[in-house]
């Protein structure tokens, strides 16, 4: 590689075949490339204010790096981020910021993450590798790809210093600009801001319905695709009429309406197809209206993964589900290799990784992680985050070649104290999964509510809509839940709230801001009793 360029910049000059080959080379020796990545990052940050303060030029080992640079939080970067937003250079990394990622995170408070050119390239390389792997898992997918990519608007304007500001999902879309992939949704719709969530969902569903050649759906939270399927189900004749008349029967901005109508594909044959299917079957099912739809790329881990599994039960068995990858506004961290599996090998070139055991102990590097042990993820990135604790809890499951497979479990903040023991959201999920297995049931959505005295826990569950309510054996389910709570977490069950169908979706509607989508939204698992929507309570046991 060119010694004057960063490792991501050199990788970015490779064609897809060469890039994938190099990636596999990294996976065979991830620990060597991790050390190289760390010193490459330090080299491209040594002239910055942060690099000078922490003597980057004098660091000769991982141990010296860990001694010179303390573990950090977002609040540690606030002053430096403000300088970067004003256009100042050489603050957290050498040179000027390429862009600033805007994120509301899980707290709802806006966060700003500057990206260097090198950091952005590293993210986009991971996205490119995910697409290559997607094509390998699903041969023929990218021969003539029509992809529904559900994302938030990427455009947040400019900072006071003229730095472009965008959403992380917008960065992902930008990585496809020069590819042959055809996106079902026009950018004008994705970027539209002065439009209600209901109207935006209708229009997304309308454009998707118009595309017979849909091959894949890519989004973080597949619950949003489920919203679009419901839009099609509830507005079938209205949508067919809109496509037939090349019109949009919504009261939206006239200029936006004119632009979107101009983006409609030729729908004459499509309308006749849809009319025939509806006349024959009385509804438009996914397998009937999108015969080439075979792949979903989405989050499969954590609570969002439960949404994906629920929706999977309503799609054809021929549709493969691929974990779209673990990442955040701060970076992209793995490249999943197998369909229907949520873990994937760490991308060893994108950041330098460290891991803090949640049960105490020393911070370890990638070569020292243990399987089935929970850690908080700490990254050092090309974009000026140094030993930055994301407070994401992760787990390792096996290896791809010689690289550990990482899976996101939950945020460290998703916990409660019961009987003086800290219990995380993923532990409550594991109890529920065992209960589902014991009971031969599937739960679409759940939350837990600690009792006021922190001695017991209540579960709030929404049984799968696939089950007739009379088929759900609530007493057997409760019995197994009581047993598993006691065996796994030494906890007593307080109450079991059985919720009506649609409870989860009602929460998404409640928490999503106007003009946003639910694609990057995660619902809280640990909640208070005051947050329950009582109108959705069906029964309390």
From TrEMBL:
Start and end residues of each GH3 middle domain: 347-411
Gene Ontology MF terms in the entry: acid-amino acid ligase activity
Pfam families, per database record: GH3 (PF03321), GH3_M (PF23571)
GO cellular component: cytoplasm
PANTHER family (alphabetical): GH3 DOMAIN-CONTAINING PROTEIN
The protein's name: GH3 auxin-responsive promoter
Organism, as annotated: Methanobrevibacter cuticularis
């Amino acid at each position: 590689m060119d010694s004057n360029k960063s490792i991501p910049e050199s990788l970015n000059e490779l064609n897809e075949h060469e890039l994938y080959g190099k990636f596999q080379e990294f996976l065979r020796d991830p620990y060597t490339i991790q050390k190289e990545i760390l010193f490459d990052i330090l080299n491209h940050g040594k002239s910055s204010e942060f690099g000078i303060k922490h003597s980057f030029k004098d660091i000769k080992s991982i141990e010296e790096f860990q001694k010179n640079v303390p573990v950090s939080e977002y609040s540690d970067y606030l002053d430096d981020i403000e300088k970067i937003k004003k256009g100042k250079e050489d603050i957290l990394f050498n040179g000027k910021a390429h862009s600033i990622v805007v994120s509301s995170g899980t707290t709802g408070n806006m966060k700003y993450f500057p990206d260097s050119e090198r950091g952005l390239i590293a993210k986009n390389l991971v996205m490119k590798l995910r697409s290559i792997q997607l094509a390998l898992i699903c041969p023929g997918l990218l021969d003539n790809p029509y992809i529904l990519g559900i994302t938030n608007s990427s455009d947040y304007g400019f900072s006071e210093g003229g730095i472009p500001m965008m959403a992380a999902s917008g960065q992902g879309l930008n990585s496809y600009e020069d590819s042959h992939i055809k996106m079902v949704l026009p950018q004008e719709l994705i970027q539209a801001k002065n439009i209600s969530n209901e109207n935006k969902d209708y229009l997304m569903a309308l454009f998707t319905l118009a595309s017979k050649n849909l091959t894949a759906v890519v989004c973080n939270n597949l619950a949003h695709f489920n919203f679009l399927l419901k839009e099609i189900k509830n507005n079938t004749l209205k949508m067919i009429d809109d496509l037939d008349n090349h019109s949009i029967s919504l009261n939206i901005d006239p200029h936006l309406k004119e632009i979107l109508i101009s983006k409609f594909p030729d729908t004459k044959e499509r309308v006749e197809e849809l009319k025939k299917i509806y006349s024959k079957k009385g509804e438009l099912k996914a397998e009937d209206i999108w015969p080439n739809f075979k792949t979903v790329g989405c989050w499969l881990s954590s609570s969002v993964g439960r949404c994906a599994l629920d929706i999977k039960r309503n799609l054809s068995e021929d549709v493969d589900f691929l974990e779209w990858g673990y990442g955040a506004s701060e970076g992209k961290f793995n490249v999943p290799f197998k369909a229907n599996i949520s873990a994937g090998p760490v991308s060893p070139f994108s950041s330098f990784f460290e891991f803090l055991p949640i049960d105490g102990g020393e911070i370890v590097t990638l070569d020292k992680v243990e399987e089935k042990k929970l850690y908080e993820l700490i990254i050092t990135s090309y974009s000026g985050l140094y030993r930055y604790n994301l407070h994401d809890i992760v787990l390792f499951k096996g290896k791809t070649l010689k690289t550990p497979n990482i899976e996101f479990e939950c945020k460290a903040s998703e916990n409660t104290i019961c009987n003086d023991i800290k219990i995380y959201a993923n532990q409550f999920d594991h109890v529920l999964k065992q209960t589902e297995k014991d009971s031969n049931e599937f739960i679409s959505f759940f939350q837990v509510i600690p009792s006021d005295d922190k001695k017991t826990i209540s579960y709030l569950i929404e049984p799968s809509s696939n089950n007739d309510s009379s088929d759900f054996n609530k007493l057997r389910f409760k019995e197994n839940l009581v047993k598993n709570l006691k065996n796994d977490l030494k906890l007593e069950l307080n109450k079991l709230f059985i919720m009506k169908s649609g409870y989860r979706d009602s929460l998404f509607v409640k928490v999503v801001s106007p003009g946003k989508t639910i694609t990057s939204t995660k619902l809280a698992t640990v909640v208070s009793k005051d947050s329950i929507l009582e109108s959705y309570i069906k029964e309390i046991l």
